[in-house]
Amino acid sequence: MENSYFQLNDLPDEILMIILKNMTNVTVLFSLMGVNKRLNKIVHDETFTSYLTFLVCSSDSSVHPYCDSIIDRFCLQILPSIHHKIQWLNLEASSMKRILFATDYPNLSGLGLYNVDDKTVKYVFNGKKFHVNCFDSELFRRL
Predict the structure, then answer these.
(1) Please, are residues 52 and 71 in contact by the beta-carbon 8 Å criterion?
(2) Are the beta carbons of 40 and 34 closer than 8 angstroms?
(3) pLDDT tens for residues 97-129?
(4) Which end of the chain has fewer CB within 10 Å, C or N?
(5) Which has the closest alpha carbon to 38: 77, 12, 76?
(6) Hey, is 56 helix, strand or coil?
């Protein structure tokens, strides 16, 4: 039997979507955005752009940031091109300001914050970019 192999581009879109849905949205966008027109079209689908989690949870339930090179590429290239599709962001303290200030998020309806202190929350949400009028959470009542 002759050896054969398939490349990503050989797969039909439906199979590719099944495979990519098993990866994190951040990984899909970081790895495939800008590769070619077909993959750009696929990764711009709301499946991969509406809900982004910029943190990694380890087996002991601690939260860690992505490395700076990944955050840099998102802030400079990826987020500005998909900002209007993002509905939810999960962020941790060390990259929160960079990601929130990278672009506008006109359709953002949810925000998960991890390992963030009160001082940082006050700085980000009492500024000109984001202004919080009312929240039910204990954190915002303390502010």
Answers:
(1) no
(2) yes
(3) 899 999 999 999 999 988 888 887 777 777 655
(4) N
(5) 12
(6) strand
